[in-house]
Structure formats: C-alpha cells, structure tokens
Amino acid sequence: MKIRFTPIAAAIGLAAGMLMSSGATAADTIKIAVAGPFTGPVTQYGAMVKEGVDTAIEQINAAGGVLGKKLEAVSIDDGCEPKQGPVVANRVVNDEIHYVVGHVCSGATIAATNIYNSEGVVMVTPSATSPAVTDGKNYDMIFRTIGRDDQQGPAAAKFIIEKIKPKNVAILHDKQSYGQGIANSVKTELEKAGIKVALFEGINAGDSDYSAVITKLKTSEADFVYYGGYHPEMGLLLRQGAEQGLKAKFMGPEGVGNPDINAIAGASVEGMLVTLPADFTKDAANAAIVKAFKDKKRDPGGAFQLTAYSALKAIADGIKGAGADDPAKVAAYLHANTIDTPIGKVSWNKQGDLNNFKFDVFTWHKDGSKTVYK
C-alpha cells in the first residue's frame, strides 16, 4: 500500500525526526558541571575555572572527544556560598550529570560533597584547599587538583621564618572555612618555630571599613601581616593600612592572588606576597596548551586556570581509562592510576587528595603582574 503524506503528517514526521535527532545528539554528549561563583564578589575565580574547563574541552573535543562522545560544560552558580552548595549538588544529581569540576570555594565545596559522594557523582575541585573537604569523610568520589591548606600554610610559614624573619607577626582571617583554616595553619607553624604571633583576629568579609583592625595592627607593632581570605578584603586592608601609615608587609594565600585586587588596593598592593600554585605556564611541555588559552584571549597564568584544565582532563582520562561513562568506575580508575596533566603527573591518596603539590611564593606588583620571590 502506498502511503500518501499530507502536510500535517509530514510536519509530524519532521518533528519526530528532529526529536530523535536531538536525542541521539544528547546521547553522544557527556555533560560536566562547572560549579562555582558566577555571581557575587569573587566571580573572577569562577571565571578562571571556567576558562580552564572550556579550553580543555575544546582541545579534547577537537581530538575526537571521549569514547566517541563530545564533552559539554554546564555552568552552575553557587555564589561561593556554603548554603548554595547543596542546592547546586542536588541540581547536578537531578539533571543526571555524573561529573563536576568544582566547587571553587571551600565552604560551598564542603557543603556539597556528601551529596555527590552518596549519589555517585565524581567531583574534582581545582581550588578548594580546606582539609575539611576530605578529612575523615571516607569519600570515594571526591578529588582535588590543588594542594591543601595544611600544605600551603606550612609553605607560607616556612617562607616567613626563613626569608622574612619578622619580629612580630599579626594573623588575620575572614572567619570562613578557607580563610580561617589556612590562618590557623600558618599560626601553628610559626609558633612551633618560636615566632611571636602578636595578634590573631577575624574580620567580617564584605565590610568596607577596617580602620579598627588596622589600629590594632599598629598597636601590636607587627611588622608582618598574614591574611587568610580573598582579594576584596585584602585589597581594602592594604589600601586603608597605607592610608593610616601602617608599615607592615602583607602576605596571603591564593585567594588574594587576583588581578582585581589592584583596582581595590591601588599602588599599596606593590610587594604583597602570595602563595600560589607553581607557574605551570613556564613548563615547556605546556606550550601548546598555553597557546590554546591565548588564542581564545584567555589568561593561562591565573591561580586556577591550569588546575581546572587538569581537573577536566582527569575526568576525561578517567572515563577513557575506565572504558565507560560510569562514574563509579571512573573514580576507581583515578584512585588507582597516575594522570598526566598540565600541573604534572598527578595521583591521589585514598581520600582524594593529591599525593604531591607545589606552592610557590610570588611578589605581586601594582601593574597586576607577579614574579616568583627570589
């Protein structure tokens, strides 16, 4: 029997064909959530991670994808807020996304990890350094491509002890998981070495006037200040300290290492010290990756671009190594193998922390550039 297609039937058939095509396309795509602050005061860190993920995905897809499938990034905003961590995690689960690069901030990461682990989602954070992300959790699905505060803190303290040799140190923090955690780590290491901590105090993130704490810094006669937290507060501390005649040198963790601090601190940012992941852009093996960033007018030299690229590559290599888009098998593969990434050959211990990671100390300059401290 010959079937005659009416215009309506043809339209229905076309629509059905489009739906089938769309379904086939979706089946050929592996979605990876990028969870971090895309709104709020530290959106720059979310942008750094997104640049790293996008560059990695573009290169992997251009080379044929993973197991014949293309990778697709899905950005989800948590505003760097702990209360948004579970909201984002539940969305990832409900959307049936099996892999996450993020979260970016430690507080939001800590709040989300239990959901990911219990729901079988592989999460690799390129930036959350708090030990509380993994300590004592017995997680199988949670990984990092950055070191921990109890690696970064001792590195900063060792530098202070051996290079700065201050008379009195003041330590400030922002009362949050990341900032307070690394401040405590630095304090512990300094006191072990007999360095006097003249002032240890928290400030309120988001305040616009730190005159009272600057007065305390001057009264303490501290000649060196370590601040645990992010760049907006550090920028204000530097600027307001200079305005009030504070002569102490400042140092902070990677959370202060953001070019936007220059707009806040002005010329007073010159000479700020910061611990950051080693500058992996200088590794000749990364020349093609660095070029790929620059070709897209992206900066590969920020705090988290290459750790984020490495997180995405770890997931992609884990899928390839497992031979299946199966997050449980991917996690098992990552635990058992070493992955070649722009930050070096990485491997993880039982709780998902890197076995090795290098932090360097940089001097920050008023033009936004940084140089390794010598």
Key phrases:
374 residues, alpha/beta, Rossmann fold, 7-stranded mixed sheet, 5-stranded parallel sheet, 12 helices, 14 strands, 18% strand, disordered N terminus
Separation of the first and last Cα atoms: 86 Å
Q: How many domains make up the coordinates?
A: 2
How much of the sequence lies in strands comes to: 15-25%
- The sequence of SSEs as H and E is HEHEHEHEEHEHEHEHEHEHHHEEEE
**Total E-strand runs:** 14
User: Main sheet?
Assistant: 7 strands, mixed
Structural class: alpha/beta
CATH level 1 class label of the largest domain: Alpha Beta
Record the strand order, biggest sheet. 7-6-8-9-10-13-14
Tell me about this structure.
It is a single chain. The protein is an alpha/beta fold. It has two domains: 25-146 and 281-357, Response regulator (Rossmann fold); 150-271, Response regulator (Rossmann fold), CATH 3.40.50.2300. Helices cover 44% and strands 18% of the residues. The protein contains twelve helices and 14 strands. The protein has helices at 7-27, 43-62, 84-94, 106-119, 149-164, 177-192, 211-220, 231-243, 261-265, 287-295, 305-322, 327-336, and strands at residues 29-36, 70-77, 99-102, 122-125, 142-144, 169-173, 197-202, 224-228, 249-252, 273-277, 339-341, 344-346, 359-364, 370-372. It has a seven-stranded mixed sheet, sandwiched between helices. Strand 13 and strand 14 (370-372) form a beta hairpin. Helix 2 (43-62) packs across helix 11 and helix 5 (149-164) crosses helix 6 (177-192). The N and C termini lie far apart (86 Å). Residues 1-26 have low confidence and may be disordered. Belongs to the leucine-binding protein family. This is L-leucine-binding protein/L-isoleucine-binding protein/L-valine-binding protein. Residues 29-368 form the Leucine-binding protein domain. InterPro entries: Leu-bd, Leu_Ile_Val-bd, Peripla_BP_I. It holds the Pfam family Peripla_BP_6.
